[in-house]
Specification:
The complex is a heterodimer. Chain A has helices at residues 15-27, 38-48, 64-73, 93-98, 113-131, and strands spanning 7-11, 31-35, 52-55, 82-86, 104-107. Chain A is of the alpha/beta class. A seven-stranded antiparallel β-sheet of chain B has the order 2-1-7-6-5-3-4, sandwiched between helices. In chain B, helix 8 (290-321) packs parallel to helix 12 (445-455) and helix 10 packs antiparallel against helix 12 (445-455). The chains are: A alpha/beta, B alpha+beta.
């Protein structure tokens, strides 16, 4: 039986960034779902129940903080690993808001795509261990 | 002296007269004896009669003379007394005259002093008017109190800012009317009031963290400076100067938000460039020809420089706004240095730098803000490797002296030209030789290092000789970095 691909949802409003992330995760062996902003992302998230979420913060309609708050209210959503990828400063007020809601919070410019993939993998492994 | 001579002369004259009478009596007695022996009794009797008469006359004369001499003596002595009295009077008169002159002089002196006093009064009145006009016209509120914090004076701005009426406030106790709150609007006791601290410590206290609770319910962000008034080292009162900084705070906040937003906006295209360059280099779009790969590497390197520049500019703006925090926790220099060296390994390997690291193990755990300390070492090490050129020697050292912890990063590189050494910690400054030989650099690193050192209770300095090398030093208190509250961390 072929191994089922892990499903990752990428919520990012910048098309080039979303595209390059999607491309990287696909070539790293993930099944990728894409959303252009928070509302769409949240709907897709509950509909498709991905294994992990890569989330931007500054987005139209529903930002990353709003997305996380609503996601964490749900029983399933409370456990899904979320890696926040943003270009806000690491100490920005949003970081405080996200604390405790996201699993990891990183600055895009300080991390290579490889590093982002590694981070997501680590989070998925951690979440799987918690499940067990 | 006539008073003494006259009685002596009188007595001498009397003596001569008595002698003359006695001589005459003796001659008469001899005549009597001759007459008696001669037998002329009648003549003898007559002569005796003369002699007796003469004797009587002489006695009378003597008596009269004596009496007169006595009188003369008495007169003379009275005369002396009178003369003495006169002399005394004259002396007194002289003294009186002298006193009069003295008095006149004193009157003149007094008049002069009075005139001077009048001038001083006029000058003081003028100065007071100028002071009052000055205090009245400045935008800052000014309140003066005595040593018990009782209000002695307040200017018009204090009234305008705080809605206090100076007429009713003078004589009141400052703690009763000056109500302070913190950022959360919680009331602050007078024991934490800058004026209380100035009065009790005798030191000037400056604070920007308080809010005045105004009677109209408005909380006013204020800058307060409280200065003790010292006379012979004793605090006799204090002056409070305050300013409404609501607008300043809003501007600071706006600036801070702008910088955060701007850095976010700048980073978004940078992360796009960085990630696409990474994709190309990793062969996701197929293997690149050698030349194309080199070009993409250039793009990637420049992009990283741009990312660093944005981070540095963000840090500089936080330093300039005074909003960055120093949050020390128990840390070890060994760990921080090791991490920095590990990160710099590619640069060290590329430059074939010979690196030596010495950390005094007796320092052990110490209060450090690991992120800031990392930044200090990272900046100094990166400069040392960069400016010492290929095969350069770099030494990192952390040691403990009698009164501080001293970090140093030494290199044997190009050094800093003497004429430009004064500017080396200036924002965006790069020395000519550095700009000429190493294009990579933004001139912000040392500015940040110095700010971190100074904001943590330390210092930063260097010794350098052109073409011989440079050693940068950072000193910290023995207990480590001092904490500083702030709304932002450097990143």
């Amino acid at each position: 039986m072929p191994k089922v691909k892990q499903k990752i949802l990428i919520v990012e409003d910048e098309p080039p960034l979303r595209a390059v992330l999607a491309q990287k995760f696909r070539s790293a062996g993930f099944a990728v779902l894409e959303a252009r902003q928070g509302e769409e992302g949240l709907a897709l998230c509950f509909a498709k129940k991905p294994d992990g979420v890569v989330l931007d913060i500054v987005m139209p309609r529903l930002d990353g903080v709003g997305f996380l708050r609503q996601l964490r209210e749900d029983d399933w959503g409370a456990k899904v690993p979320v890696v926040v990828l943003t270009n806000l400063s690491e100490d920005d007020a949003t970081r405080e808001a996200v604390r405790g809601l996201a699993d990891v919070y990183v600055t895009k410019t300080n991390h290579s795509l490889d590093a982002v993939v590694t981070l997501v993998r680590t989070c998925l492994v951690d979440a799987a261990q918690k499940e067990v | 002296m006539p008073a003494a001579t006259s009685p002596r002369l009188a007595r001498r004259a009397t003596g001569l007269l008595i002698a003359a009478v006695a001589l005459f009596a003796a001659v008469a007695a001899v005549d009597v004896a001759i007459a008696v022996y001669g037998g002329d009794r009648w003549l003898a009797l007559r002569l005796l009669g003369y002699a007796l008469s003469l004797g009587m006359l002489a006695t009378v004369i003597v008596r009269v003379t004596r009496k007169s001499a006595d009188d003369t003596d008495e007169l003379l002595s009275r005369n002396i007394d009178l003369q003495t009295a006169r002399h005394q009077l004259e002396g007194m008169l002289d003294n009186e005259r002298k006193n009069e002159v003295e008095l006149a002089k004193n009157v003149l002196d007094l008049e002069r002093a009075q005139k001077e006093l009048r001038e001083i009064n006029a000058r003081m009145a003028r100065e007071k008017a100028v002071d009052e006009a000055m205090l009245g016209s400045i935008g800052d509120g000014v309140v003066a109190t005595d040593d018990k914090a009782v209000i002695l004076f307040m200017n018009a701005s204090a009234k305008e800012t705080l809605l206090w009426d100076p007429k009713t406030m003078i004589g009141k106790s400052l703690p009763e009317i000056s109500l302070l709150a913190n950022e959360r609007g919680e009331h602050i006791g007078f024991d934490q009031h800058p004026m209380h601290l100035a009065l009790t410590t005798g030191k000037k206290i400056v604070s920007k963290k308080f809010y005045f609770l105004r009677k109209d319910g408005l909380n006013l962000a204020v800058y307060i400076s409280a200065t003790p008034v010292l006379v012979d080292g004793k605090v006799i009162g204090a002056i409070e100067v305050f300013r409404d900084i609501t607008q300043e705070k809003l501007i600071d906040q706006a600036k801070s938000e702008f910088v955060s937003l701007a850095s976010h906006q700048l980073r978004t295209p940078l992360s796009t460039i960085g990630w696409y360059a990474e994709m190309l280099l990793s062969g996701d779009a197929g293997r690149l020809p050698k030349e194309a790969r080199e070009y993409v590497l250039e793009i990637s390197t420049s992009n990283k420089r741009m990312v660093d520049l944005v981070s540095s500019l963000l840090n500089v703006s936080r330093i300039d706004l005074g909003t960055f925090a120093v949050e020390p926790v128990q840390s070890r220099f060994e760990d921080i240095v090791q991490e920095v060296v590990k990160e710099a390994q590619p640069q060290i390997a590329q430059n074939k730098t010979e690196l030596k690291t010495t950390v005094d193990s007796s320092i052990g755990q110490i209060m450090l803000d690991p992120r800031l300390m990392h930044m200090v070492f990272q900046n100094l090490l990166s400069n040392a490797v960069k400016y010492s050129g290929a095969g350069g020697k770099v030494a990192i050292s952390v040691r403990k002296t009698a009164d501080h912890i001293e970090l140093s990063v030494a290199d044997n590189g190009m050094g800093i030209p003497k004429s430009q050494q004064g500017k080396i910690f200036t924002k965006l400054f790069r020395a000519d030789n550095a700009r000429e030989k190493v294009t990579d650099g933004n001139g912000l690193g040392l500015y940040i290092v110095k700010a971190i050192a100074e904001q943590s209770g330390g210092k930063a300095w260097f010794v350098s000789e052109e073409d011989r090398g440079t050693t940068f030093f950072v000193s910290l208190p023995l207990a480590g970095m001092q904490p500083k509250t702030g709304s932002r961390a450097l990143s």
